[in-house]
Amino acid sequence: MFESLTERLAQVFQRLRGKGLLTQADIEQGLREIREVLLSADVHHEVVRELLERVRARAAGEKLVESLSPAQHLLAIVRQEMTKVMGGEVHKLRLSGRPAVVALVGPAGGGKTTTAGKLAQHLRKRGRRPLLISADPERPAASEQLATLAQSIGIPFASADQDPLSEVPKILTQAKKDLVDVVVLDTPGTPPGVLPPAFLAELMATLKPSDVLLVLDALVGQEAIRMGEVFLSLGLSGMVLTKLDGDARGGAALSLPSRLNLPILFVGVGEQPDDLEPFDPNRMADRILGLGDLSGLVEKLQEAGVTARAEKVLREETFTLEDFLGQLEAMRHAGPLGQLFSRIPGLGRPEEEEIEREFKKMKAIIQSMTVEERRNPHIIGASRKRRIARGSGTTVQDVNRLLAEYEQAKKLLKGLKRGKLPGGKLPFPR
Ligand code: GDP
Ligand code: MG
Question: Is pLDDT above 90 for 363?
Answer without folding.
Answer: no
